[in-house]
Amino acid sequence: MKVAILGLGVVGRGVYDILANDFKDITVKYIFDKDDNKTKDVKHLLAESYEQIINDREVEVVIELIGGKNVAYDFIVKAIKNHKNVVTANKALISERFKELNELAKKYNVKLLYEASVAGAVILIDPLKKIREINQINKIEGILNGSTNYILSKVFLEGVELKEAISNAYKLGYLETGSDDDMNGLDSLRKVNILSMLSYKTFLKEEDILRISLLSLNEKFINYVKDKGCFIKYIAQSEVRNNRLSIKVEPLVIGSQSIFANINYEENIVNIFGKYHLKQSFVGQGAGRYPTASAVIYDLLTIKSIANECFEFNKIYQVNNNDERYHFLIQTFDKIYKSKLMTYGELQRKKDIIFFSRIEEGLYEKL
Ligand SMILES: NC(=O)c1ccc[n+]([C@@H]2O[C@H](COP(=O)([O-])OP(=O)(O)OC[C@H]3O[C@@H](n4cnc5c(N)ncnc54)[C@H](OP(=O)(O)O)[C@@H]3O)[C@@H](O)[C@H]2O)c1
Question: How far is residue 231's CA from residue 228's CA, in Å, rounded to a whole number?
Fold first, then answer.
């Protein structure tokens, strides 16, 4: 099988290395990257133009690892229209254009696979497509962003100040300079969106997802939670109940007994709940060169081995995040207090809130 890699950055280089070392029957025929420094050792593989790649009948798979929503989108669409299978790790694009790109791939009878787009190394999307056929999935919850989990772990487990933990995360490359997508919840939102559309066989819009940012989390709030022996985790969750879907990304105050308390630093977890199989957990490294590259390779193997799949997205749900009542821990300018049971809508009408977090069930008395 011959493939082309677009983008030889963190993940692209990982894919190239693994294929070169371990897969003699998958050949990288072209590499396409605008940064000459990254491609010095593979000059012989550089494509003259993108057209050269899509016009080459030998190329079966275009692996898009450029990222972003503009160039990557154009390249993916062109690849599909030229009857190439596409593998990508691009959660931003897949989340936003899930319907359009899936339908396009179906129309041109090619595969569009994106195993690496959620939870990095954790092979989750392919199993999920099968699990949902045998077990009506009704809830997904998890820690889907390794960068914020790293920061919260530093703060709560090592006593590092929030600012310092954030600066460590930048230094280690866990947080991207100039982007707030991790701290403001967009990254988790995209991932829970993809998982939810797949699990519930429906199309969802990003703007319908409730997203509580971590950007205004602060020492005072953290210390209050710490003093009570509790932790904060950044949780993505969606649930179908009575034909209604709630879907959100939010901080959650948890106790030490919570399953999330054991998921620390860059680790991710996804719990899946269904009708017959009550709970299933997927845990593993959520990002990084080789972990993510291995999920890309998984998709290549899928294309090599399995006939084209075809899923129907034929259900419609009314998205509603405002029926459920919760207890919240609320910080205003002069105090931190526990709320009565209230909906997100009621909470958001309150004034002068600096930060708030939903309180895990059963933890109200402790706080
Ligand atoms: N890094 C991770 O751990 C991780 C985990 C899961 C998913 N992902 C996803 O994987 C994708 C790639 O991420 P990454 O971290 O590998 O990114 P990256 O290191 O920035 O690599 C992207 C590469 O593409 C090049 N590029 C940008 N625009 C281009 C263009 N128009 N034509 C040709 N090449 C172009 C970049 O060059 P310049 O540097 O010159 O811009 C860079 O070499 C993203 O969608 C990301 O969300 C990453």
Answer: 9
